[in-house]
What we know:
The complex is a heterodimer. Chain A has helices at residues 48-55, 78-84, 101-106, 119-131, 148-161, 178-193, 205-211, 234-242, 302-310, 332-337, 347-351, 358-370, 378-391, 408-422, 438-453, 465-471, 494-502, and strands at 10-19, 22-32, 37-41, 63-68, 71-72, 86-89, 112-113, 116-117, 166-170, 197-201, 214-219, 222-228, 266-275, 279-287, 291-295, 317-322, 325-327, 340-343, 426-430, 457-461, 474-479, 482-488. In chain A, a hairpin with a 2-residue loop joins β1 and β2 (22-32). Chain A has a 6-stranded mixed beta sheet with strand order 6-9-10-3-11-12, sandwiched between helices. In chain A, strands 18-19-20-15-21-22 form a 6-stranded mixed beta sheet, with helices on both faces. Chain A contains 17 helices and 22 strands. The longest helix of chain A has 16 residues, at 178-193. Chain A folds into 3 domains: 10-98 and 142-232, Rossmann fold; 257-339 and 424-504, P-loop containing nucleotide triphosphate hydrolases (Rossmann fold), CATH 3.40.50.300; 353-423, no CATH class. Chain B has a domain at 76-302. In chain B, the strands form 2 sheets. Chain B has a two-stranded antiparallel ribbon with strand order 1-2. A two-stranded antiparallel ribbon of chain B has the order 3-4. In chain B, α5 (100-119) crosses α12 (244-270) and α6 runs antiparallel to α12. Classes of the chains: A alpha/beta, B mainly alpha. At the A-B interface, α10, α11 and α12 of A face α10 and α11 of B.
Amino acid sequence: MSTNEQPALLEVRGLTKTFTATPALSEVDFTLYPGEVHAVLGENGAGKSTLIKVITGVYKRDAGTIRLNGKLIEPRSPGHAQELGISAVYQEINLIPTLSVAENLYVGRQPRFLGMVSMQLMNKKARKLLKTFNIDIDVTRDLSSYSIAIQQIVAIVRGVDLSAKILILDEPTSSLDRHEVETLFSVIRSLEEHGIGILLITHFLDQVYEISDRITVLRNGRKVGEHLTKELPRAKLISEMLGREFTETLGKRSNQITNGDSKHDTFLDIKGFAKRGMIEPFDLEIKKGEIVGLAGLLGSGRTEMGHLVFGINRSEKGEAFVESKKVKISSPRKAIRYGFGLCPEDRKVEGLIADLTIRENIILALQAKLGWYRHIPYKRQEQYADEMIEALHIVTTDAEKPVRELSGGNQQKVILARWLVSNPELLILDEPTRGIDVGAHAEIINIIKRLAKEGKALMVISSELAEVVDYSDRVVVLRDRKKLTELTGDEISEDAIMQAIAEK
Amino acid sequence: MVEMEKQVLTPVNENKPQRATNFKWRNIFRGDNRALWTILALIIILLVDRMVSPTFFTVRMVNGRLTGSLINTLDGAAPIMLLSIGMTLVIATKGVDLSVGAVMAICAAVSAVLINRHEAGSDNILYYPGFVIAIAILVGALCGLWNGILVALFDIQPIIATLILMVAGRGIAQMITDGQSPTYTDETLAYMGQGTIFGMPFPVYVAAIALVVVYLLVRRTALGLLIESVGINAKASHYTGVNATVIKLFVYIISGICAAIAGLIVAGENTYADPHTAGLWSELDAIVAVVIGGTLLSGGRFSLVLSALGALIIQSLRIGLYISDLHPNANLVVKAIVILLVLLLQSKEFKQAVGRLFKPVLKLRAVFK
């Protein structure tokens, strides 16, 4: 449906945006034709959200041009972008849940009859408007009484009705179930027929292939490829997103602990854990001294799996056994009591207590485990902190510095130290090497391997495939919130993982 | 003055002993010297009080009781100080307890009604003064538990959760006293507000003991650390296994107990319990005392000693305004302005702005050198 003979609707050329020295976007080109769905894909930090924020005027660009219908535009704010014809619908819906559907559609521009706001007229117009998208609902009911999918559709319809030429959809399907996705897609298809250009950001590859006409792949702020969806094999897409080529030489395993054999005891055995909207039922077994890597794209359910195992989210079904004893993992506190530890993905929000000192951060998990009355003597705290600073090479002048003053890599080590001090049997590491410098990166991987040698069970979530291949005894591959397969021993390679992700 | 401040500073900065030793005058406009500014503000206000009333620092012994404005300040500060101790812990967890004034009224009412039965000749051991005090404190603890349950278990925002008891509390107190303001003559209860030891009013000892006890309770156990950890980052604390529910219940209960004791003191001073006025607006004094003491309303690091100093600042300000010739109508405005000034002194941004203003002066001085 989209051909290059058509004049482009939106033409972005050489777009560059830099935040504090690191470019978030460098020289990115992007072209959107009328009546097409153009998916922008990439892993975390690829620059997708920066791109849409520049296009909608949230950020000011450093260089580059944006043309709408051939004319140069300068979006100053989301409101201004909307006036120009660019509407964005985000994951969190920016509508008013306590107003009716019709009111939400026409808020700020209620139809008037003889100078008075006419509810009747408004409801009639709203019904008619929704009919054009084959949506037949009671427009007088509160928006909040409808499912997220309908709310999203109302947001989209409102955006389109505000004379949008371009619609930006950021992760529209992430909280929808299969049926709701269908409804949303039918609306998107009818928008295409109206000649509207749609920029879609999503993590669900199946949906990309179902709905999109064209794909642009971003990585580390650069455009790495633009393809017609039907001409792009999945495997090639994934290798572009991850920045790895399919070659035989890559992905050699250096980790030869290989404790994946049966003579080691199982530490944790999970059968059929699942939670609606988070992850489909999965089994998972982790032996002592074994490193299990979780691989998959962003949003594939890696983190969710970790959260379920650690009790941050309670599993709706299934059972768990720790050393063959049945356990109920209902909260992180419980999980910690069974000997689990978790270094979260978002260090700042979920890990560090920023204003506390390094010492206090390091002893916190152990102290919480002991309870408030069994205070760790100050001298012992200092010992723990000093030991850890030395063992993990944490770069700091002393242990009394607030932890927020440390660099990312050192902060990560402090969180690792926190768990090492409390001596867990199973450590779940979510993206342990993200955003840290090369030196610390290698050190953390060495610590992971050392812990496995000491007989700890490890579960490591990472988007660095080379890394996962390097240290894992077993790799669990996930896609679209579902465990696909497990690779063991010699089966493990970057190619094998990518193939597993790409397979239909 | 420097020497004196150093001495006061040392016990205050329990977590950062290096600050006191690294003290430099030129750092005053930089960094985070909350302790210093709080003490300085107190000294300045006391000096102003001295200017308004030349006898402000005069302390005399009359009938075995120390008298003078300074003693009155300490005596009057005791209830606010008690409230601010509990309030500090609550605020450190990112909460707030608006109900303390109402809890004071409830506990005062409970004590007055029970002791009246004793005075009416009841032999029930529960109406003996010692038990009355214990029961009033228990009621305060239960009020705190109620707040704690709403906040910790039902996850209601602290400001709303404690507002409920703030509003309902005075009504409850009125129901307890049957709409009256019962008076009593019992000496033990009166001693709570009027007694002296070595000439010093009893409430001052109570506040000091409460400060020491709570200080030891939170700093000699891990409670202080866990409270701060929950206040700074509740999510990360949860992931680290900190039991935020227990911590929150604890701080609200402590706050309730502190309010109960403050209520007993206020009732003892007058030997009657007025459900309408006992502890009225004192929750706001307590919050301001905590904020002046440098604990942020956004939770986290706290200092009990500085909050107590904050309470002293508020009371010396009140006494100063009371003895000054200022029209009573102006009192509240002056109080507000002074509190604003104290907070500005602590604001890093404000000090930096002032520092920038003085830059040309400093440059000139360098030139003449």
